[in-house]
Design a protein that fits this description.
- The structure holds two protein chains of two kinds.
- By secondary structure, chain A is α+β, with helices and mostly antiparallel strands.
- Chain A has a domain at about 95-165 and about 270-405: MetI-like (MetI-like fold, Orthogonal Bundle).
- Chain A has helices spanning about 1-5, 30-65, 95-130, 135-145, 150-165, 195-225, 230-250, 275-300, 305-310, 315-345, 360-370, 375-405, and strands at about 175, 180, 185, 190, 255, 260, 265, 270.
- Chain A has a four-stranded antiparallel β-sheet with strand order 1-2-3-8. Chain A has a two-stranded antiparallel sheet with strand order 4-5. A two-stranded antiparallel sheet of chain A has the order 6-7.
- In chain A, helix 3 runs antiparallel to helix 4 (about 135-145), helix 4 (about 135-145) crosses helix 8 (about 275-300) and helix 8 crosses helix 10 (about 315-345).
- The longest helix of chain A is centred in the N-terminal third of the chain and has 34 residues, at about 30-65.
- Chain B has helices at about 50-55, 80-90, 105-115, 120-135, 150-160, 180-195, 205-210, 230-235, 240-250; strands spanning about 10-20, 25-35, 40-45, 65-70, 75, 90, 165-170, 200, 215-220, 225-230.
- In chain B, the strands form two sheets. Chain B has a six-stranded mixed β-sheet, with helices on both faces. A four-stranded antiparallel β-sheet of chain B has the order 2-1-4-5, covered by helices on one side.
- The longest helix of chain B has 16 residues, at about 180-195.
- Chain B starts with 9 loop residues before the first strand and ends with a helix.
- The chains are: A alpha+beta, B alpha/beta.
- Chains A and B meet through helix 6, helix 9 and helix 10 of A and helix 2, strand 6, helix 3, helix 4 and helix 5 of B.
- Chain A: This is Amino acid ABC transporter permease.
- Chain A: Belongs to the binding-protein-dependent transport system permease family. HisMQ subfamily.
Chain lengths: ~400, ~250
């Protein structure tokens, strides 16, 4: 290839200008431009033929089996129940609704998993580099165990070995009005009564006040150099203000206590064991990978940076926060994005323990009942594609933002 | 030859300093006294322990035996003492070690703001003043990656000076620089010396040693082999090892 490229009749510049030799036209199969055009045309026609064959074949087969294509089935009644739903759903709801319920359940587990895995992963990553022997070794042990056991096995472990072995509803472990049994975690549902609005207002007022204090503290530090414990005040305000209001307005919050009726609990809020098992497994597994990513990021910051900060009299915590982490993040973000995408896609393993995510509900039951394989599978794939693209779009935007501050 | 600005006040004192890396005895019974305003140049072959010695002074390296006293503060296990000493001792590194994610100005104000709790305005004014002294005030808003090596090292000096140190440690400040940039850094260091700063410089810039040093120290194998004022040191070295070293580095 490369030798062809060089022999393509470009005239040498500079000295040869006055007496330009006749430019000989290369044979068309030796002209790189025409060559590449030819290959592209060939590739396109092969691709076109393959797709035509697939589509034609599918349509013929569907017709032979009497399956009508199209998305009409989405409005038909589903007729099956779903163990957990974030919106109102009954057996009389449509197949379209099963899609929404599954989608929301998938988003729920993905978001819960990403948050928990990130927090756990960052702590473990920093811990593995700790000077404390015990802390560092514990973190290393955790990482080596959980990233080297297949995720599906871990899901099975949490579900069958831990949560399924909990007692029956009748022998539930009870504490503070909540119950733990093999049907999940059941706790009282809060029911706001008159006057609870004040507590809500107080909560948001506290958030607003914290924001103002943070701004004031930053300004004061710039003017006078005095530092203010912003994080502590924020926690105090956001928890304290609503709590005080709540107590003084006579605790205007009723509780819908779960009660054992027959074989199961009525009332309260139930978190099904499938959700807990999947959440534990996904977060614990992904946290191990995030921890390694964070460790790599911190190690990528040269030791000289820490030394320079130390020599300037900065404490370990401030060095980590102001010097090491900001530089480590630039290395950490791209692989972190991959971990988020992995977690989201791995959540489809839900189907193995029956957590009603999109794959279990829509690409499972709905597909079985309707037989609309092409529509259902393509919708499901489109959802994962869209979720993943959205995640990586956001992370790329964030990455570009922190990279920019380099120069 | 500069006349000495040294006062009677003892600034840095090393007594019977010993340090091991595992089995390897890096520093052997080092004794050194540096008075306020004194300029010490430390030279010696690589691996002789000269960098390790000055890195012990602000506790970047831990020593196992002996005493280090900086401005009357003993360097011991007490974190408060270590912090206090680090505030009084500035350090310039061979590879500058500027913070690449911060602008030149941010590099200079970071420690004054977070360690000395100085108001930002005041810190920035002081940083600009010092950047002017090292002759790069126009680069204040650039990032370290946009500067030449010589400029970066001058920023690093300004960054250290922003903490108002009583002692400055230089760990081979010109060894990573292109030849034409060495002079701009040495000029800044000479200026600093004439202003009366107490300085300990690990360097092989013998011209610099002749101009500003009150004493030159030659180290080999973790020991101080020879210690003398520059004229005597260069013209009349006592030890064979010193003579050999000098003949090698002054050959060209």
């Amino acid at each position: 290839m490369s030798s062809d490229m060089s022999s393509s009749g470009h005239k040498p510049d500079g000295s040869a200008k006055e007496k330009a030799p006749p430019v000989s036209q290369p044979k068309f199969w030796n002209d790189p431009k025409k060559r590449s055009l030819l290959f592209q045309v060939l590739l396109l026609s092969v691709l076109g033929f393959v797709f035509y064959t697939i589509i034609d074949n599918t349509l013929t087969n569907l017709e032979q089996r009497g399956i009508t294509t199209g998305f009409d089935f989405l409005t038909r009644e589903a007729g099956f129940g779903i163990a957990m739903s974030l919106i109102d759903y009954t057996e009389a709801s449509s197949y379209g609704m099963t899609f929404i319920v599954g989608l929301l359940n998938t988003i729920l587990i993905a978001v819960m998993g990403i948050i928990a895995a990130t927090i756990l992963g960052f702590i473990l990553g920093v811990a593995r580099l700790s000077d404390n022997w015990l802390v560092a070794k514990f973190s290393a042990l955790y990482i080596e165990i959980f990233r080297n056991i297949p995720l599906l096995l871990q899901i099975f472990f949490w579900y069958y070995a831990v949560l399924r072995t909990l007692p029956q509803p009748r022998q539930s472990i009870e504490f503070l009005g909540s119950f733990i049994n093999n049907r999940g975690f059941i706790f009282p549902a809060p029911v706001p009564e008159e006057g609870f609005g004040l507590v809500t207002v107080g909560f948001f007022a506290a958030i607003a006040a914290s924001w103002l204090i943070a701004r004031w503290a930053k300004k004061r530090q710039e003017l006078t150099g005095q530092q203010f414990p912003v994080a502590l005040t924020t926690i105090g305000l956001v928890i304290g203000v609503p709590l005080v209001l709540f107590l003084f307005s006579g605790m205007p919050l009723g509780l819908d206590h779960p009660e054992l009726k027959g074989f199961n609990f009525k009332g309260g809020i139930t978190v099904i064991p499938e959700l807990i098992a999947l959440w534990l497994a996904l977060s614990i597994y992904t946290a191990a990978f995030i921890a390694e990513t964070v460790r790599a990021g911190i190690l990528a910051v040269s030791h000289g940076q820490t030394e320079a900060a130390t020599a300037l009299g900065m404490s370990k915590a401030k060095t980590l926060r102001l010097i090491v982490i900001p530089q480590a993040l630039r290395v950490v973000i791209p692989p972190l994005t991959s971990q988020y995408l992995n977690l989201t896609k791995n959540s489809s393993l839900a189907t193995a323990i029956g957590y009603p995510d999109l794959v279990n509900v829509f690409a499972g039951t709905t597909l079985n009942q309707t037989g609309q394989a092409i529509e259902v599978i393509s919708m499901t794939m489109a959802v994962y594609l869209a979720l993943s693209l959205m995640t990586s779009f956001f992370m790329n935007w964030y990455n570009a933002r922190i990279q920019l501050s380099e120069r | 030859m500069s006349h000495s600005q040294a006062t009677d006040k003892m600034m840095v004192e090393l007594r019977n300093l010993n340090k091991w890396y595992g089995e390897f005895h890096v520093l052997k019974n080092i004794n050194l006294e540096v008075k306020q305003g004194e300029k010490i140049v430390i030279c010696g072959p690589s691996g002789s322990g000269k960098s390790t010695m000055i890195r012990c002074i602000n506790h970047l390296e831990e020593h196992q035996k002996g005493d280090i006293i900086v401005n009357d503060i003993p360097l011991n296990e007490d974190i408060k003492n270590i912090e206090a000493i680090r505030k009084e001792v500035g350090m310039v590194f061979q590879h500058f070690n500027l913070f690449p994610h911060l602008t030149v100005l941010e590099n200079c104000v970071l420690a004054p703001i977070w360690v000395k709790k100085m108001p930002r305005k005041e810190a920035e004014a002081q940083a600009m003043e010092l950047l002017e002294r090292v002759k790069i005030p126009d680069q204040a808003l650039k990032y370290p990656g946009q500067l030449s090596g010589g400029q970066q090292q001058r920023v690093a000096i300004a960054r250290s000076l922003c903490m108002n140190p009583d002692v400055m440690l230089f760990d081979e400040p010109t060894s990573a620089l292109d030849p034409e940039m060495i002079k701009e850094v040495l000029d800044v260091m000479i200026e600093l010396a004439t202003e009366g700063m107490t300085m300990l410089c690990v360097t092989h810039e013998m011209g610099f040693a002749k101009t500003v040093a009150d004493r030159v120290i030659f180290m080999d194998g973790g020991q101080i082999v020879e210690e003398n004022e520059p004229h005597e040191f260069f013209n009349n070295p006592q030890h064979e090892r010193t003579q050999l070293f000098l003949s090698q580095i002054l050959q060209h």
